[in-house]
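haha ok so turns out i had the wrong file open the whole time. this is the CORRECT one, sorry everyone. sequence first:
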Amino acid sequence: SGVARKWRLSRLRNDADAARSSSFSACAAAARAESGSIAFTAARSWSKLAPVRKLAEFVRRLRWGTLEERRRSGLVELYDLLAQTSFHDKYWVFLGLMLGCVREGGPLPRDRDSDFAFLDRDLGDFMAAVAVLRRNGYSLRPLQVNNDGRTTKWALKRRGYKFEFFQLDQRADRYRWHTHGRNPPTELVNEVPAHGLTYFELYGRRFRIPDNAEQQLEILYGNWRQPDPDYRYWRDCQATIERNPWTSSRRRTAD
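then structure:
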């Protein structure tokens, strides 16, 4: 459609500007072509799936309440269940949930998932906590496998709301994590400065949050204080240090 064509051209212009300002000038042409292809594919896929998504949300509202009701009850329940485990003080709010908490005072209104992070040294405690969540009705979604053969991101779902946990590897004074895109299959390697943790009260619970949250948000989102409807994580995140073809298994069935 004309709208989709204008949207794609706008993305291409933005990607071209970003590539020209990058120190990786040798990759600029390839980056523009790849970003344009991803943007167009994403727009087309979203257009096709929109009616299905609307119907699914209608069913979820009938069964479990509005998105905000599910998010509020889900985060409270998650906190309370994890508070009974050895993992309770070893995870923190991350990515979009961190942005919402710092900028809006709570989750972003349209977010359908909540992001958390933990360090690689606490993987054992996390997996034990996952077992507790699964016994209480949380379904473990199919897992993504990194190019190095590891799984470092887990997603669990409860009453139509998703909770994502990212394992961060400590590299000297940096924390590193992996994310993946599907069209084309791409693995992003991301880093932020290492940090301590403080507390943020949300829905009557004291969640942990990085003590350098504003610094992280600037790296992740740029001008994070101003909402940007055109922001795309795979394209705009300044924490990304590597972009590689995703050559590992795309998904692994959860046990």
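The longest helix spans residues 28-64.
again sry for the mixup
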